[in-house]
Structures are given as C-alpha cells and as structure tokens.
Design goal:
The chain is globular. It has helices at 3-6, 12-26, 31-41, 46-59, 64-81, 84-100, 111-117, 121-137, 144-161, 165-175, 182-186, 192-199, 204-213, 223-232. It is an all-alpha fold.
Length: 245
C-alpha cells in the first residue's frame, strides 16, 4: 500500500529497478521473475521490459500472462508513439492471451477497440457484436455494463468511419444505457466515440451522452460538467485517459 507514496521518494524508482534486475540476474530463466520485472519496468524502461518479456515468451510460449503483458506493453507504446506496428502487436498478443485463457476479462474487453485501432474493421465489428451478445446472455456478471458500453462504442466508431453519423449517434446513446460497472463507476466511460462525433460537428448527442453517463459515473470529479461547458463553447474537450479506458 505504501508503493504509490514511495515512488515520490528521489531515487526510489532506480532502486526498485536495480532490485528487479538483480532478481533477473539471479534467476534468468524464471518466467515469474521475468514477468514481474517487466511489469515494473513497463513505466520506467519499456525497452528493457520488452527484452524481458520476449525472453519469458521464448521460455514459455503458451503462457497467457506473458502474452497479456506484451499486449499491455505494445498498447502503451502505441499510445505514446502512435506507431501502427505497436497497435498490430498489441492486438496480436491480446488475441493470444484470449485464446490461451478464454472468458470475459479486461483483455477481452479491449479486443474490439484494438482491432478498430489496427484498421481491422470486420474483426472489430465481430468483437463488438460478441460483447453485446454476451451482455444479453448473462445479466449478472461483473462486466455486463462494460460489454454494453464497449460493444456500442466500437460499433459507433465504425459507423463514423463509414460516414453513418446517425447510426453513430444511436450507438453513442446505447453505450450509456447501462447501470454501470465497477470500472465505469470509478474510471468513467470512454469518450472516443463522443470525440469522433464532436469532430464531425455533432455536439447535441454528445451533451446528451454526458448527462446519461452522469447516472452511473458519480466519481467524475465534475469532469462531465466541465466537458459540457467546453462543448457548449464550441470546443472539443481534452478527454485525457477517458479516451483509453
């Protein structure tokens, strides 16, 4: 629990990095150690993290956890450098993790957006429809709200890409027709479709979307209100991490 506070201590990150590298040196073929070290290094030395994860993958090619960490690493690199190759690799490793460890998971919920970002619209549409079908099939699982949200979000972004803006508005409304989820209630909804529609000049449905999201996102720290004010002023808000969640 003290980790977030210790990260503020000068030199702490370098100390922890060296401790992990010492563990790797002592146990260079231990997949658990390699993955743990890479997980820490992912935010401070991504090149080193990739080296360790590549080694772990070579040692245990069918390890779902390693595939998931590689997907996370390439997603982070794609967000910071906007390299198409990283988007493609993030999707490839996420699909590998899903194949090795099927079921509704955080990785599964990212597949539709990763496929969209990679330009794989047919695949993205398939994942989005799977999400919506899964949400109908099971109304009591923890991720039902996320499945509804993500499924409509991806279908809406595809609609924008194809010039079907009225359909995109309909999907935006549907993406907020959920009672929420642990993730949605805390981190909030994804705003990438809202941003797409604002860039296309469709502000009214986005303002309605903000109101609808307020029904489940109680921990927004007034973000929805500030974003609405920005939109009414004719500008596009800086949605920050809510373009990623």
């Amino acid at each position: 629990m003290l980790e977030p506070f210790l990260m503020l201590v000068p030199g702490y990150e370098e100390l922890r990095k060296q401790q992990w590298l010492d563990r790797v040196a002592a146990r260079p073929n231990d997949v658990v150690v390699l993955t743990g070290a890479a997980d820490f290094l992912m935010t401070v030395d991504r090149a080193q993290a990739q080296t360790l994860l590549t080694r772990a993958s070579a040692l245990d090619p069918e390890n779902a956890g390693v595939a998931g960490k590689l997907a996370q690493l390439h997603s982070l690199r794609a967000q910071s450098a906007h390299r198409p190759e990283d988007v493609r690799l993030a999707l490839e490793y996420a699909e590998k993790e899903q194949r090795l460890k099927p079921g509704v998971s955080a990785t599964y919920l990212k597949l539709g957006q990763l496929a969209f970002d990679a330009g794989e619209l047919t695949k993205a549409r398939g994942y989005a429809n799977q999400y919506l079908e899964s949400a109908i099939a099971s109304t009591h699982q923890w991720a039902t709200g996320d499945l509804v949200h993500k499924g409509n979000l991806v279908l809406g972004r595809i609609a924008v890409r194809e010039g079907r803006l009225d359909d995109a508005e309909r999907y935006l409304r549907a993406s907020a027709e959920t009672s929420g989820s642990p993730v949605l209630n805390s981190f909030g909804p994804n705003m990438s479709l809202a941003k797409d529609l604002l860039e296309a000049g469709r502000s009214r449905p986005v303002l309605e979307y903000f109101d609808a999201c307020g029904r489940f996102w109680k921990l927004d720290f007034l973000k929805l209100g500030r974003w609405a004010s920005t939109v009414r002023a004719g500008r596009i808000p800086e949605f920050g991490a809510n373009l990623v969640y």
